[in-house]
Design goal:
207 residues; globular
Length: 207
């Protein structure tokens, strides 16, 4: 079973990347356990390996980090729960699609505890809700693997400043809308979400 760590302070992006790099190496060498790390970042943008410069729409002063994760542009900031997942897929089935599907299902199962119906969309990674007849993204997903050890992970919009998503084309989808638990009129504390994330993780046969 993976270790769990929750950071109460905002974690700078560079610090998080450095930590994950070291942890992945430790898992590879057998000196560290698998880890799920729950945190928040200060407001920033990250660009995944598929990001297009044209999808950065506004120069609004937020820092931009080039990330080694899959995916395109996204926003991170206070009120968004980041879950970085560092696990060894050689202990599962070395199937990236199965891993991604289980990450999405983890979010779906967690949101369902609060009455939010999260759904997948064909050809679009992440978790979506249908709100007032519109598809809106409530959780993003971007991963990286090194010798079958995963890092990076998921981002669930609990109560972030959604206006920052207007500075980018989120995940390269020009007409997609982004939402949050608060925008759905379902107030959730990060603490309650964290407890639900751990409960649903432990119920899954995959992890």
């Amino acid at each position: 079973m993976a270790e769990w760590h929750v950071s109460s302070e905002l974690i700078p992006y560079e610090e998080a990347i450095d930590f994950m790099e070291r942890r992945v190496q430790g898992i590879l060498e057998g000196t560290d356990e698998e880890l799920v790390w729950l945190l928040e970042h200060p407001s920033l943008y990250t660009a995944g390996t598929s990001a297009k410069k044209s999808d950065l729409l506004v120069e609004n002063g937020l820092p931009l980090y080039i990330s080694g994760r899959g995916g395109q542009y996204t926003y991170h900031g206070p009120g968004q729960r980041i879950a970085y997942v560092m696990i060894d897929l050689t202990k599962r089935n070395r199937d990236v699609r199965t891993f991604v599907t289980n990450l999405e299902q983890w979010v779906i199962d967690t949101l369902s505890e609060f009455g939010i119906v999260g759904e997948r969309r064909i050809g679009r990674v992440g978790v979506w809700v249908n709100h007032q007849g519109k598809d809106q993204k409530i959780a993003a997903l971007g991963i990286r693997l090194r010798k079958w050890i995963s890092f990076h992970g998921i981002a669930i919009n609990v109560n972030p400043n959604l206006s920052y998503f207007k500075g980018i084309v989120p995940c390269g989808l020009p007409h997609s809308e982004v939402t949050s638990c608060k925008a759905l009129n379902i107030p959730i504390s990060l603490s309650d979400l964290d407890k639900a994330l751990q409960r649903t993780w432990e119920k899954s046969s995959y992890w």
